[in-house]
Write a structure and sequence with these properties.
Elements lengths: L4 H4 L5 H9 L2 E5 L3 H13 L3 E5 L17 H5 L4 H12 L4 E5 L8 H4 L5 E4 L4 H14 L3 E7 L2 E7 L8 H8 L5 H4 L3 H19 L8 E5 L4 E5 L28 E5 L6 E5 L12 E2 L4 E4 L4 E5 L2 E5 L5 E4 L4 H18 L1
Parallel strand pairs: 1-2, 1-4, 2-3, 4-5
Antiparallel strand pairs: 5-6, 6-7, 7-8, 9-10, 10-15, 11-12, 12-13, 13-14, 14-15
Length: about 350
Amino acid sequence: MNKYVKQERFHGIGQLGQKRLRESHVLIVGVGALGSMSAEMLARAGIGELTLVDGDFVEEHNLQRQLLYTELDAKTHRAKVKAATKRLQEVNSEVKVTGCFQSLHNENIQQLLQGVDVIIDGTDNFETRLLINDAAYKWGIPWVYGGLSGSYGLSLPFIPNQSGPCFRCLESFLTDDEDCDTHGVLGTTVQMVTAQQVTSTLKILTGDKAQPSMYKFDLWESDAGYIQVHSLKQPSCKTCSGERTYPTLRTSQMKRHIQWLCASSGVHIRPKEAQNLHLPRDRCSNHSWTYLPFSDVCMLRKANRQVMLFQDGRATIRGVATTNEAEMLYDEALAFLYEQV
């Protein structure tokens, strides 16, 4: 029996819609809670091709809400895109899945968008979302935003060729709504947001021309509804109005890209150019540092601070109070590695 028979019987999909899904390519940026669940839903729906972009690894606290991953993935600090790709291929071998173990930035986004029909936001920061938004509007690719905190969530598709506002127009209305590290998050909130994101994606891919509106809910308070945002379009927006400059797509002259993680839980550092670091395969230490190797990342510990270092030079640093302290720790960790060569 056709595995999609029940989906094809739904009036909004049908056999023609299923064919369109099979011929479509979706890029998912971030495969944490929202991205991993979106990927599984789309794989089961029979999407033709999925590209997953994420530079992070699985941790134990992810398992409560990130359903593609296991305790073994967390114990071995497995790259999320590698664990997700393996699982998705087991879910549906007909889907082409490509995992990109890297962060999304303005120097790789154009290449990653080649042949993509829709972008799904699985990120947890506004800087990356503004980058997605600028790229989507410059190259005319629909994208679907999702955000959550506690039992509260929201989702909104953005269609570049329509007359509504873009994400940059709405940024000031959205920035206070998300803080998962402070308020926590329910696994059911993730599923609710993802259901909206994936449904919006299916509608776009199958040709639904409905005007997008924001879906906003609070599961704990049993409150939900759609909000019309068309009037919030900003006439001076640098992405969707007037003279469009797409600010985040400009090439940075900074030596490093430095960004606080969600709720200031750590600092992410990315060198301007990707490195090819030699990461020792054996555990080692000196009077200051302890080094632990894993398959996709290495861990360096110094007192109560931690550096998770990737082969391409990226690092996630926890236990610091400022970005200057994070940079100093990053440099110290690299110096320790060079001593081991």
